[in-house]
Fold each of these.
Amino acid sequence: MIRPLFALAVLLSSFATAAEPAHNTLTPEEKAAGWKLLFDGATTTGWVSLGKKTFPSAGWSVKDGTLLMEKGTGGGDIATEEQFTDFELKWDWRVQEAGNGGLKYNLLDPTRAVGCEYQLLDDQKHPDGVTKGPIRQTASLYDVLPPSPEKQLKPPGEWNTSGIIVRGNNVEHWLNGKQVLAYEFGSDSLKAGIAKSKFKGMATFGVKTTSPILLQDHNDELAFRNIKVRPVAK
C-alpha cells in the first residue's frame, strides 16, 4: 500500500516534470506563433565560423544539450547561416565565473564581428563589469547603452534567459522575463551613446541592417541552449 504523503509527492513530481518542456524543442504554441529553433541540442546545423561556410573544428562543441564555447580553445566567433531583419530572439545562457561573452546582431558587415552586442558577463568579477560599469555589463548594448539597474541576473554557473526584439527601428533587450533596455536606431540618445563609445567614428554603427546572429568567442566558457527566433512585423 502506498502511503498517502508518498503518493502526493509522486503526483506533484509528475506535474512538475510535465509542466517543463524539454530543452531545445518547440511547444505547439511556439510552433503556431512562428518560432523556429536555431540550435537543436544535438548538432551544429545552421551555424558556421563567421565569414566562412563551415563550423570551426575546435573550440565549440555540442555537449549535454548545450552549444558550448570551451575556455581558451580559440574556436572563434560563430554565426547563423540565416540572416535576420525584424525578429524576436530568445535564448538561455550560462557563463563561467569572471567570464565574458556576447551575442551580436545588426552586424555592419555579415563577415565581420562589428555590430550591436547584447553583453553576457559575470558583472561582479569580470574587469569590464567592475571597472567600466553598466555599459559593459550583462544586457547592455555593449559600450553604448546600459540596462536597467533593476535587472535580475543569476550568478555564474546558473542559467539566465535573455531576449532581443527588433521591430522596425525599435529594439528591446530582455533578461529573465523583464525588459531591461529599449532604444531606437537613428535616435539622438543612441547617437550620443555611440559618440562616447569605442564605436565612435563608425558612420554606419547603429544603422539598421540585415545580418546573421553571432555568438562571441571571448576565450571564456559560455554555454547556450533553447536558442529560438521568429520573424515579427514592423
Amino acid sequence: MHFLSRLFSTTAISYEKGRCVAVKGKLPGSILRDLADCLGEAGIARGEIWLAGNGRVSFSRDIPDALYQRLRNILVQM
C-alpha cells in the first residue's frame, strides 16, 4: 500500500531531524514548517506524507493515526 502511495503521489513530503522537505512536487514553506512543528511536538523522529492528485493523503507507518487529522488540517491550507 505505501509503495503504491509513494509511486503514484503527486506530492511527497519527508520529515526528518525536525524538518519537512517536499521531495516530490512543491509546497509553500509555511505549510512545511507547520507540518514539521506538528510532528516535532508529537515526538516523531521521521516519516513521510504522500498526496495524490485526487486529494487522498497517505502517511508512513512512523506517523501515528492520532495525528492524521491534524496534519490534514494543515495541508488543507494549501
